[in-house]
Amino acid sequence: MKFVSEKDIDATIEALENYSDEQYEQQMEAFAEAQPVIFAWLFSEEFELLTEDERGYLQYLALIAWKSNEKVNGPVGAVSEDEIGEAEEKNYAMLEATTAKKFRDRLNPFFEETSQEDLLAFAEDAVLESEDDPDAIVSKEGREPIFIAIKTLIDVLTGVRVIECLGV
User: Fold this and answer.
1) Nearest CA-CA partner of 95 in 69, 123, 62
2) Is the pTM here over 0.85, yes or no?
3) By three-state DSSP, how is residue 75 classified?
4) 3 φψ region: left (φ > 0), alpha (ψ -120 to 50), beta (else)
């Protein structure tokens, strides 16, 4: 997989911001058609604990990650439930294995093992952008599941498999 740069991500964000509501809906429909399992997962009860705004934001972030990767690497085959489950489990295990106190510091191991650093930085910035803002979209409780969801999405879309990450 080719590297998805910050420039690619920013171009995707800019394009989405300029879309009409109808064009944005079309992009979400294209995402749902191309990756039905991911799309269903994003709308699943797994994310029930997030606020409605956080769920909407997660879906928006997922669309950005998917479109950015597709722009650089072309269409990716549909991802399976097993692939999502394995990647998500690995990511939660990695997060739980860290001993750092601050959430930002707990994310460092993810950067040490990724080949998609800019996509990962995008996920980190999305959940930490307004850490000290009481009116931020992402609550302190929402940071972990949203980050892990986007990291999992990046892994399955860019072909990172659990075996590769474990060095097996």
Assistant:
1) 123
2) yes
3) coil
4) beta
The pLDDT tens digits of the residues spanning 14-67 come to 999 999 999 999 999 999 999 999 999 999 999 999 999 999 999 999 999 999
What CA–CA distance (Å, rounded) separates 94 from 98? 7
- For residues 92 and 148, is the Cβ–Cβ distance under 8 A? yes
Task: Tell me how crowded residue 98 is: count the other CB atoms within 10 A of its CB.
Answer: 14
State residue 98 phi and psi, 5-degree precision.
-80, 145
Secondary structure (DSSP) of 27-39? HHHHHHHH-HHHH
Q: Token pair of 129, please?
A: 């952008």
Supply 164's token pair: 């590769």
- The residue whose two tokens read 């998500």 is 88
114 φψ region: left (φ > 0), alpha (ψ -120 to 50), beta (else): beta
3-state DSSP: the chain helix, strand, coil percent, rounded to 5?
70, 0, 30
Q: What's the distance, Cα to Cα, between the start and end of the chain in Å?
A: 19
Burial 47-68 (b: 16+ CB within 10 A, else e): beebeeebbebbbbbbbbbbbb
